[in-house]
């Protein structure tokens, strides 16, 4: 599968993406940049659905053995990918609602999104270009 082949080179992006899943509650330059990258259709705004799609894509990259759960067993046995995986996995822990050390797809999708929630000032589940710009301040 393609995602396995390109997994290692793309891991830095995955880690950054994990932060932008907007588990991060602070608007760092990095988390904002990644949030913008969730704008899949390039219209300048990030919808809730676009953010969920990004979560799924990060989840699928981390679930290397395709068993529907991200857990320590998905970690590469050795090599630089291992520490990067651990870094990404650690930043996902906030999504582990039942604290069993494994992240299911539904835990991933239902994890809080404070950055998105804070930025979406009119509450329409879309971060408009204006709301995104306001987050930078
Ligand atoms: Ca968009
Ligand atoms: Ca897995
Ligand atoms: Ca769990």
Question: Could you list some keywords that capture this structure?
Answer:
4 strands; mainly alpha; two-stranded antiparallel sheet; disordered N terminus; binds calcium ion; Recoverin, domain 1; 137 residues
Distance between the termini: 41 Å
Strand order of the largest sheet: 1-4
The overall pLDDT, averaged over residues, is: 84
Q: What's the CATH first level? A: Mainly Alpha
How many domains is the backbone divided into? 1
Q: How is the CATH topology named?
A: Recoverin, domain 1
Global shape: elongated
Strand content: 5-15%
- Second-tier CATH architecture: Orthogonal Bundle
Order of helices and strands: HHHEHEHEHHEH
The set of bound ligands, ions and cofactors reads: calcium ion
Question: What integer value in Å does the Rg equal?
Answer: 15 Å
Secondary-structure class: mainly alpha
What is the helix tally?
A: 8
Poorly predicted regions are 1-7
How would you characterize the largest beta sheet?
2 strands, antiparallel
Q: What is the helix fraction of residues, given as a range? A: 40-55%
What's the total count of β strands?
4
């Amino acid at each position: 599968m393609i995602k396995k082949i390109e997994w290692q080179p793309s891991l830095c992006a995955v880690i950054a993406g994990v932060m932008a899943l907007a588990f991060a509650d602070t608007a760092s330059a990095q988390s904002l940049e990644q949030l913008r990258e969730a704008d899949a259709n390039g219209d300048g705004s990030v919808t809730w659905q676009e953010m969920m799609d990004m979560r799924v894509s990060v989840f699928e990259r981390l679930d290397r053995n395709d068993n529907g759960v991200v857990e320590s067993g998905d970690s590469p046995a050795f090599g630089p990918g291992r520490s990067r995986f651990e870094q990404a996995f650690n930043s996902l822990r906030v999504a582990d609602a039942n604290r069993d050390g494994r992240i299911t797809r539904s835990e991933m999708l239902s994890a809080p999104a404070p950055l998105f929630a804070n930025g979406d000032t009119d509450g329409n589940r879309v971060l408009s270009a204006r709301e995104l710009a306001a987050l930078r301040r």
